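Most newcomers find our protein records easier to grasp once they have seen one. Sequence and backbone structure share a record, each on its own labelled line. Nothing more is needed to start thinking about how sequence determines fold. As an example, a complete record with its sequence and its structure tokens follows.
=====
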Amino acid sequence: MKQKTTLATLWEILLVSTRLGLTSFGGPVAHLGYFHEEYIRRRKWLDEKSYADLVALCQFLPGPASSQVGIGIGVMKGGLLGGITSFIGFTLPSVIALILFAILLQGLHISTSGFIHGLKIVAVAVVAHAIIGMAQKLTPDLKRKAIALIALVGTLLWQSALTQVGVILIAAFVGYLFYKNEQVSNEKTVQFPISKRFAIICLALFFGILIALPIMNDLTSLSWIAMFDSFYRSGSLVFGGGHVVLPLLEKEFVPTGWMSEEAFLAGYGAAQAVPGPLFTFAAYLGAVMNGWQGGVIATIAIFLPAFLLILGTLPFWNMLRSNQSINGALLGVNAAVVGILIAAFYQPIWQSSILSAPDFAFAAILFSMLVYWKLPPWIIVVTGALGGCLILPYL
């Protein structure tokens, strides 16, 4: 590492990131706005250009973009320990809240609970909003709309985690063919306090763990290795942020019998009520399966790829962002993400949540509250839970 970090610096990072972790509602795009206001405008930890570079890098990588930006800001302010401290502060509040929610649900009859049904309808409104926003940004032309359509059809007709990985790889190749000559703007370089040697070690660990975990899972019968493998793989292969991890996680844990679809969607709805990254949904899933210990393991597993990738690519970003071929492949992947998300919206979200005309009407109300009235997400979640209690008796 090239930067000396003091305890005072780490303490400052922890305090600021924890406050953001307690107050940052609204999903990944909103988180980037909170970061810009706090880290760039108020504290001036980075200049505008460096922040833009960091955001661009994290959009390029799989995993939770806002969490990776937070980690990157911590690294640039306080080195490796600064990145770890920033991650803990931003993530821990929602991890604790979702583990407690999972534990409280253990004694309830989830499938017949009105507020759980309401949380599932909340998931409909939230994901619909995410789809509209992402489609406008990531599929602006006919070629990318076609990529999204093919991804949607393929994911719906052949439903498996491997299908989604294949769709992403094919989309990257098609994007390369379509956009390999797309002009990339020439911008000044920015320096990151990570050595290339350390970065290469992180990248080697990322791929090494990704390859080794399935092998270990086949050779052993330990449930925690199987769970770690599923969460690590999901965190490694998701482009597009927290909403897109839903179909991967659903395919990993619902058909295999780890948990019921009702419990899965209830947790996804509850995840909208807490601030911080949506990837902490993994903490809820792990806690449902194996108590608070499972929640901790799941959180580490799903965020570890994000850590290794951001640390492994920071020193090489100046070279990557000027490569037209890589930029073209990324455009294709981002378009495919839209199709995968629409497929997830239909199954399992829509089919499991919208069971009647009152459900549809209530989903429309929640969507309007979120999109047009721009109410805070926690209000949408509370309204959904209360409304579900009123709707369920009439189903």
Remarks:
- Residues 7-394 form one domain.
